Amino acid sequence: GPATFQRVINHVLGRTRWKYALAYIDDVIIYSKTFEEHLSHLKEICQLLKDTRFRLNPEKCEIARTQTEYLGHQITNGEIRPSPHNINGLLNTRVPQTADEACKFVKAAEYYRKFIPNFSQIAEPLRKFVPTTRTQQKKGQKTKITLAADEIKAFEELKRFLTTDLVLRLPNNRFPFKVQTDASDEGIGAVLLQIYPEGDRPIAYLSKKFTQAQRKWSPMEQECYAFICALDKWHNYLSGIKFTWETDHKALTQLNQKAQINKRCERWRLKILEYDFKVKHIPGLTNSMPDYLSRSPVEDATEDPDETFFTASQSTQTDHELYNRCYHVVSAVQTRSAKLRQTTTDTSVNTTNPIEDSLLFQEENRITPFSMEQLLQTQQHDEYTQNIINNIKKYKKYFISNDLLMHRSNPPVPYVPHGELRRTILRIYHDTAANGAHFGRDKTLHKIKQRYFWPSMYKDIDNYIKSCILCAQYNPRRQKTPGKLQPIKPPEGVWQLVSMDFHGPITPTSRRGNKYIISLTDILSKFVVTKAVRDNSAQTVVRFLKEDIITKFGTPHCILTDNGTHFTSSVTNELL
């Protein structure tokens, strides 16, 4: 299939991929800076294809072009535009007569959404013709439709935008990058720019709607979230380089200096520290493009995985107060000998009351750590739960029974919001003798998922069991006991004791073919010497010591290594 062919062609291109060649299935593009360099690249790619018995179709080959069309885009002089051929096909499209025709037009236009500002808002009236499931797609393919006035306006507006000359610049590493972000009540917006001598040029746009929960965030959280989304979207452009971040929220310019911030911003601050950037405050009036995108978001709102599935680390200490409160419940084990009745409905949901099955002692050896009223009250005060309940039609895996949010499992079980209730469940079904007995991860998971559900169950249970002191004390080790650390005696002077090691292999390989870094550190002064090298052989070690260490700084008195073969070989020993 196509996926298999893609893996094969990626393997064939090997180290040339992303260096000066790319392939999308059977379309290969080669890019070079000069004509002579291009001839060399062509020769190498053709040789690779010949060695693997691939054949080229001469009629479809374009060689030494300064302008080309690739995957529906026209690339020329560092700029990218929609392909005129594809645009003409969209412009000649008649007004859709069926739901299938409307769906195809929206999806075709959506391919060029990065060229159309505010695409989501323009195409919103036609969105209802785009199916969300295969069943809807099969049912609605031949349905005759008559477009309303707003739908015809959206259709014509999209065609009008496609006729304009919308251009984006291709990234050029010779010029610095700049990120502008903004947030509004509706969502976030961001622009990736490059600073050219004649002015800033856009590389990409980004916008996203807020969920109901995100609308309740503070302005600082919303503005910071805009930058986080930009970093996630453009990580390949911004990682490892120095760039500028411009925002109209002045408090964010002191984000790294703030001692007290909430946990959400603290997690984001740790992520932001991975990048090398300078924050610059700009007035809101000059931050027009991100401000426009944030008020007219392009992408629909989705739950942020960092917010949906984040769980605080479990404490290894026992909450004696909570344990005492739950003791009378934990010690009472309810049993039942009769089997659960199994009946089905049109929706394949058990017709017995799912709340009773989950909360009212309807399974063998069942322990209920809290009452149904407590769980219902907790759900009513949980933002994420209320978001699901308010949009229950979008969440197919959930349903509501007696005002309680349930998960469609077999049997149906209640959803447990993030907080103290989850920790109570973990304590009872792992720590207590009545129903826990300090079983392992799989048994504990099996017991809990038969009674409750939350998205990060597996991760939470695994972390809780790993942090259990009793399990760590009494479970026998299956690995060899680690040896004791041997402390290094501090040297008396510089260059008396140095340490040396390799780092790598690093992918992708550099332009010069280097994929390792060899480093030498003086233990006393922490002076470091590093060098990028092609391999980690003994010859490389000897060459590094001769050319970069001994001839420049003199011979160190003692070298500390990890006894790798490249350090203990005869070639290295002859030098030392």
From TrEMBL:
The keyword Nuclease applies. InterPro entries: DNA/RNA_pol_sf, Integrase_cat-core, Integrase_H2C2, Retrovirus_Pol_polyprotein, Rev_trsase/Diguanyl_cyclase, RNaseH-like_sf, RNaseH_sf, RT_dom. Residues 486-576 form the Integrase catalytic domain. Signal peptide: none annotated. Residues 1-75 form the Reverse transcriptase domain. CDD domains: RNase_HI_RT_Ty3, RT_LTR. It holds the Pfam family RT_RNaseH. The keyword Hydrolase applies. GO terms for molecular function: endonuclease activity; hydrolase activity; nucleic acid binding; RNA-directed DNA polymerase activity. One of its GO terms (biological process) is DNA integration. Keywords: Endonuclease, Hydrolase, Nuclease, Nucleotidyltransferase, RNA-directed DNA polymerase, Transferase. Gene3D superfamilies: 1.10.340.70, 3.30.70.270, Ribonuclease H-like superfamily/Ribonuclease H. This is Uncharacterized protein.
